[in-house]
């Protein structure tokens, strides 16, 4: 009897959807604060966060070979690190949100979320068909 491995069936798309959802919240927050004096735009390094999520999922924890090395613990599946965005043209009031840049990044993130969703949907449909013997 063969068992179904959801990690093999879904690949990185479940982690990608979770991270894209978190990134959407960050980008939407930037847009909501576009007129807030002193607000600093934030973002997530999606590629680094996805690699971290995949490394933890596959059990590739970092190990220290010297007592002076960092252990690499503490990131365990939580929220990815938020970084500040470097402004192209900072405003006089200190706000670093560029509405056009944020909208562009938000829309691209939404399209990539939709792509992962469609892949997961078709994978689940394929698994259901396989279980039903079709």
From TrEMBL:
Keywords: Bacterial flagellum, Cell projection, Cilium, Flagellum. GO terms for cellular component: bacterial-type flagellum basal body, rod. GO terms for biological process: bacterial-type flagellum-dependent swarming motility. Residues 16-40 form the Flagellar basal body rod protein N-terminal domain. Residues 52-96 are annotated as: Disordered. It is found in: Bacterial flagellum basal body. Residues 52-62 have a biased composition (Low complexity). InterPro entries: Flag_bb_rod_N, FlgB. Belongs to the flagella basal body rod proteins family. The basal body constitutes a major portion of the flagellar organelle and consists of a number of rings mounted on a central rod. Structural component of flagellum, the bacterial motility apparatus. Part of the rod structure of flagellar basal body. This is Flagellar basal body rod protein FlgB. It comes from Halovibrio salipaludis. The lineage of its organism: Bacteria, Pseudomonadati, Pseudomonadota, Gammaproteobacteria, Oceanospirillales.
């Amino acid at each position: 009897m063969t068992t179904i491995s959801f990690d093999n069936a879904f690949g990185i798309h479940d982690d990608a959807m979770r991270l894209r959802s978190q990134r959407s919240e960050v980008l939407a927050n930037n847009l909501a604060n576009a007129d807030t004096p002193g607000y600093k735009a934030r973002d997530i390094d999606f590629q680094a966060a996805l690699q971290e999520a995949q490394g933890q999922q596959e059990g590739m924890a970092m190990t220290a070979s010297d007592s002076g090395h960092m252990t690499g613990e503490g990131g365990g599946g939580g929220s990815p690190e938020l970084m500040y965005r470097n402004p192209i043209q900072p405003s006089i009031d200190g706000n670093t949100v560029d509405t056009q840049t944020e909208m562009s990044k938000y829309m691209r993130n939404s399209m990539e979320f939709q792509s992962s969703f469609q892949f997961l949907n078709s994978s689940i449909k394929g698994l259901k068909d396989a279980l039903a013997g079709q």
